[in-house]
Amino acid sequence: MGTVVALSGQVGGAKLADGLYRLRGRDLAVVVNTGDDFEHLGLAFSPDLDTVLYALAGVANPASGWEPAGETRALHSMLKSLGGPDRPILGDKSLAAPILRAHGLREDRSLTEITLEFCRHLGIEARVLPMSDERVRTHVLTAGGAVPFPEYFNELACDPPVLGFQYAGAEDARLTDAVLDVLHSNDLEAVVLGPCNPFHSIRPILEVNGMRQLLRKRGAPVIAVTPIVGGKALTGSAGKMMQELGREVSARSVAMEYYKLIDGFVIDAADEDQADGIRACGVQVVIAPTVMRGLEDRVGLAQTVLDFARAIRARRLQEA
Amino acid sequence: MGTVVALSGQVGGAKLADGLYRLRGRDLAVVVNTGDDFEHLGLAFSPDLDTVLYALAGVANPASGWEPAGETRALHSMLKSLGGPDRPILGDKSLAAPILRAHGLREDRSLTEITLEFCRHLGIEARVLPMSDERVRTHVLTAGGAVPFPEYFNELACDPPVLGFQYAGAEDARLTDAVLDVLHSNDLEAVVLGPCNPFHSIRPILEVNGMRQLLRKRGAPVIAVTPIVGGKALTGSAGKMMQELGREVSARSVAMEYYKLIDGFVIDAADEDQADGIRACGVQVVIAPTVMRGLEDRVGLAQTVLDFARAIRARRLQEA
User: Fold this and answer.
1) What is the mean pLDDT of residues A13-35?
2) Does the bond joining A289 to the residue before it have cis omega, within 30 degrees of 0?
3) Which terminus of chain A has a lower count of CB atoms within 10 Å, N or C?
4) Which domains does chain B have, with CATH numbers?
5) Which helix (H) or strand (E) segment is A57 a member of?
6) What burial class does residue A296 get, using C-beta atoms within 10 Å of its C-beta: 0-12 exposed, 13-18 middle, 19+ buried?
7) b/e map B297-311, b = 16+ CB within 10 Å
8) What is the ipTM of this complex?
């Protein structure tokens, strides 16, 4: 068995990464979106990194997914009493990583180094890697101008129609040595795009200078899992955004976002009727349960993805 | 009724300040020791300022006095899981002020400005003022060298014998406009030195360039309250320190620390036998209950101090 690389953002990506981790342990590397990172009160928030860390450490709240279980909000209430800002309303445990991360960054440690240190202390054997140590920021283009994603999400509550996205800094951002190492693994077995918002979770990773080309060049099967089931986003605003961007809100539409990048696409049984259309574009399709409620679902979907990758490799060998 | 200025550090000082506040509201200004301030993980800790703020806002834990009531420690436990340092073990609510303070300081707001903003939001009408906006740091001199007070207190658990104290930066620190304003009030009625450790709570304030001279020059009665009752410190390590410095552990000994500065000294009935000795040094003495268990005790002691000041002023008028 070889190295598996998962691209992840949001809760969906973290859940699938968790499933892969249960199957592969230290052979998994998760490359995580940092385009939604932000600074607030001098703390360094990396929502997608923390979501993956909590999932893999087994400490995530199973209901929300993005914060540790048993979260409390004492600090936030005191912050408000002292005249601090109202948002973001993050719990006490959720502030630990942003405090340590900001401190580490101020001491000139890289985001990768800090994140791997978190992994070590949390007992996570997989490598959780920021997509870059350099600043990339996803902006949502609206009629009112370009808005940093966290502001769009928090202050604007995802309300203004989305006209497009910008990934500020991505073009100049460097792939880290750690990311290059895992993608250059001799035994690279599969690259998995998690069931996340394609626009602000996966695209920012792909936009880091050289990433898309490297994924293609390496030749390992690239497989994506749909975040859209039955014409709706499982969580988050992917559906709303697709509609506003004038795209069909469907699994097929997500597959088209990854056109020329992916070899295979996993869709839900609810969207079986779209399989042929996707195949017609040269993308192989597997139909499987994609809704992850419990750990069993995560592991099941992870196994589906790994089997899919093996099948693709087998077919290539046959054809060669 | 005029302006009352209290000098404060630690819980004892905060409790007396609270008593004075209940009697005088907006006519009280509390000048607070910042010599024990420290930075940790990029947060700005001001233990004595926060203790006063919690006391005056009525949110302090009545048992400990130095942290908000109903404190939890979720953030700290997560911090440890992530490999963060073990100390200081501060609660969730207690981290709010250090986060906001650090952020404010990085934005070039002064410590005074930040603290007054906290007062405003907490509904505190008194002025809580840091002794200086500039950096003063109390160091404990030990056989192993000079140790910053927070390190002496936390890491060394007050263990090494104390050979002396240094107040780094005090000589060059400026009295703030806010402190100068209250001390120059035309109606300055009394200056009160709280029942705190004389070495690392009151002395640092007095060492700020010009403070001691200004207190004398203003002419309002300066009254101190003993932190030593029956030969023991009420809380903290004042007793241990006095012993190690070769001083008698007694109320009289504390009075001598303030020699030539104070006009009056409040001692407990337990130390009645020391009254004459203190008076012999030209310091007037009032014997009163000095142990503050509940709010009633705080207000009672505050009233004793204010009555004492009035009596001193009356006697001066008689003598003039």
Assistant:
1) 98
2) no
3) C
4) 3-65+94-134+170-319 (3.40.50.10680)
5) helix A47-57
6) exposed
7) bbbbbbebbbebbee
8) 0.92
